[in-house]
Amino acid sequence: MYNRAFARAISFIKITKTIMASSIEQVRHSFAHLLAAAVEALYPDSKNTIGPAVENGFYYDFEFTSPISEKEFGKIEQKMREILKSWETFEGAEVTADEAKARFVNNPYKIELINDIAAKDEKITLYTSGKFVDLCRGGHVESARDMKQDAFKLERVAGAYWRGDEKNKMLTRIYGFAFNSKEELAAFLTMQEEAKKRDHKKLGKELKLFSISQLVGSGLPLLQPKGAMLKRVIEDYLWDLHKDRGYNRVWTPHLAKEELYVTSGHAGHYMEDMFSVFGGTSKEKFYLKPMNCPHHMQIFADNQWSYKDLPVRYFEPATVYRDEKTGQLSGLTRVRSITQDDGHLFCRVSQIGQEVSTIVDIIKEFYTTMGMLEGYWVRLSVRGADRSKYLGSDEVWNHAEGALEKAAQDNHLNYKRGEGEAAFYGPKLDFMFKDAIGREWQLATIQCDFNLPERFDLSFVNEKGEKERPVVIHRAISGSLERFMGVMIEHFSGNFPAWVAPVQVKVIPVGEKHEEKAREVVAVFRKANVRAELGGGTDGFGKRIREAKTERIPYFIIIGDKDIEAGKVTLESRDKGQVGQMTVDEVLNTITGLINSKA
User: Fold this and answer.
1) 428-434 and 377-382 as β-strands: parallel, antiparallel, unpaired?
2) Which of 290, 391, 503, 577 is the most exposed, fewest CB within 10 Å of its CB?
3) Does 3 score more than 60 pLDDT?
4) 340 given a catalytic annotation
5) Residue 21: predicted pLDDT
6) 531 and 425, same structural domain?
7) Which of 226, 474, 483, 531 is catalytic?
8) pLDDT at 166
């Protein structure tokens, strides 16, 4: 799937991540200071603001008097290396607010930060390296020798509002990569190059999977026939994994009255991310649903349930809508129309463990098939310190978090606690998977919810003939189907396994006189539910072969004079090259066997 250099890069990153993880944040934060020092030296009229460490590197936000571009990175990097030679350490000093303001008298951004820190009665510290001084809380390398001059690289320029508020001034953000060594940086850049080749936006266009129309709107992708087929195949496979495990399919509309979301709590905690809809005839106000769970609560509520009926399990691959920020939208991986392979099950507290086990089994089977199970881990997402963000009492939350952590332990999941990562209505298990080039994605999720049953007054009749409150477990296996498709396109680099490929076989006649036979073969494959296409037309044979390879179709069949004389066809594989002459039945059996086994 990738070359030796790339394989070596992956191996190196795995080793160095383990060895050097303890200091990498300090290294990256220190490089942010170095960038600010270089910009201050080269552009004395600029104003630096803030610069944290981020995944794989750092950034710093600046106000420039005139725009800069990535063409100037060479000059900035050279200045960074020059300055680094004069640095020895980062010396911190606690100062008063007035002393700090005197140091940054011409920088309104630093003055604002100083005032905020002083208002919180927190200490104000300045850090000095060489001749450069910055306002900072700390977290640097002990010695500048730990910052290798060949272990960083500036990445790109982007716009960023001051303090993330679009009402504030737009600043220039410079991103950079930083690692502990030249070798680790080189390995990462190799991975980046591979990621560019696999970019789902690029491949999605080349393979005719999806389109983005500005007339339709940002974040609202249009699936081409092949993309729609890819989505359908994933959706059908997900249903196959659920249909024999007690799930029933349901369907809910795309919008609802505001009252539904007042009851569910979304109106108080999620309204700014929702789209409102006004009825031209009815004059009623509706909201496009941001989640399916409130609708599913209503389906459960419209039935009389006994404890013998539980668990009740609903499955719905439904599209929801969220007003994601325009600047964060990207291809299929960040959209506003989100098709979730959603499921909600209603059970007793005593049944939580078994239900989570069943869901974990589905998750493991799905990601084993996709080749992404190796090295996965799970984040137990719980509440943060600010309790105002969450629905429900401490007692309910403690119960839910405890139940989910016990289920994680009972299922021997490799989990870590994620403070402040819970949904506003309950804790969750977020499953983290790696793709073929080692990037990590949060995909599947299991959420335990004691709040919505309370808010919707759901109940069933227990053994004593009394009403009892169920627990709701929310679960999604692929998460968003659009996002998963984007991940999958990049994971397979567009070379989909035969079972999931939108077109599984292309039948290519050598010349016009062979086209009738080719059509007959296509018909045989389609009758056997194999997605086959005819590769005919007026283009030359060589061009039609190249097109089949460019489209990354798993198998193509060639029919010429010698094939017809032998009563056979010639089979070629995208991954293995020419297989040879076979009868149509032999080819059909070979391909359907691979499809059915999801090899």
Assistant:
1) antiparallel
2) 577
3) no
4) yes
5) 35
6) no
7) 474
8) 85
Buried b / exposed e across 192-228, counting CB within 10 Å, b at 16+?
eebeeebebbebbeebebbebeeeeeebebebbebbe
Give the residue from 491, 521, 546 where a domain finishes: 491
End-to-end Cα, the chain, rounded Å: 15
Owner of token pair 């179709």: 553
* 101 included as an active-site residue: no
Active-site annotation holder among 61, 134, 341, 342: 342
- Domain match, 454 and 531 both: no
Which residue range is the domain that position 573 belongs to?
505-597
Catalytic residue among 226, 296, 428, 475: 428
Q: Which residue out of 136, 289, 293, 341 is catalytically annotated? A: 293
Let me know if 464 is a catalytic residue.
no
Give the tens place of pLDDT for each residue, 162-177. 998 889 999 999 999 9
In a domain, residue 188? The reply is no
213 and 331 in a single domain? The answer is yes
pLDDT confidence of residue 295? 97
Q: Assess whether 342 carries a catalytic annotation.
A: yes
User: Which tokens go with 4?
Assistant: 């030796």
pTM: predicted TM-score of the whole model, two decimal places: 0.81
Is 269 annotated as catalytic? Answer: no
Mean pLDDT of 412-437: 88
In the set 79, 148, 313, 322, the catalytic residue is 322
Q: State which of 436, 469, 491 marks the end of a domain.
A: 491
Domain count, the chain: 3
